[in-house]
Sequence to fold (290 residues):
Amino acid sequence: MIASNRMRSLQALLGESRPIIMGILNVTPDSFSDGGKYSSTLTAVDRALAMIAEGADIIDIGGESTRPAGSTYGAGASQVPVEEELLRVLPVIEAIRSQNDKVLISVDTQKSYVANATLPIGADIVNDVSAGTADAEMFATVAKHNAPIILMHGHGPRFQQARIEDCKYDDVVSEVRAYLEERILLARSAGIETILADVGIGFAKGYKDNLKLLKHHGMFASLNVPLVLGVSRKSMIGQAMGGNLPPNERTIGSIAAACYGVLRGAKIIRTHDVKQTREALAVVNAILNS
Fold:
């Protein structure tokens, strides 16, 4: 999808009154929820097509796990060489695009080289969990391709060395908001027109900090950019549900948090469970627009 089309398609989606569904596709062996399950091109493409059939508006493809360090996941994910990341994501993007030219594809990467290689062959959006801090060329690369970018708080060099338990805030809501505001301004000054923001639930934040960010998610509307929310199967969901539940048993709690997030301004919900999340949010949207 050429740059002008990708911009028009995303803007059209964002202009709809309903929440937007972003299906998660991890083509990695070590992601926290489904590591290895879709690591071959065939299984990844089949999963993407299934999520599209279930109602996904965007497929978010990640070739490098961002599993955080901490008591839940140990040392966290290891960094992947750019060549390996490209081997994982390029054939999947090309195969999906060859079968569907309408769904938007987001590439979940912190590397400008990966963004530069994937945007011309079918990716439409860059989802950078480091908010441009991991690679100084990311903003310029995204601007060159006239692509949208998602900026997340809580990863990249500034955060990834610390265990979740060691990340402390005086006021997590105002500090995360200030960080995102700074990154948005820098991205805009680099020439990026369409910017989205993600508070980064589960990244560099403890359990109570994650709950505070969800409770006060409406405070981030003042950033004046569309808000992406990723709560799907996060460990804090299992904890809130009352125990140390494995990721595949956190679906109901994830949907509850997604519904709350939409009521607090989230526009795009990033989820592993597309069908269930879409159905629940359709009810929320029907009530809101009655």
Observations:
- The two ends are 35 Å apart (CA to CA).
- The CA atoms of residues 134 and 200 lie 15 Å apart.
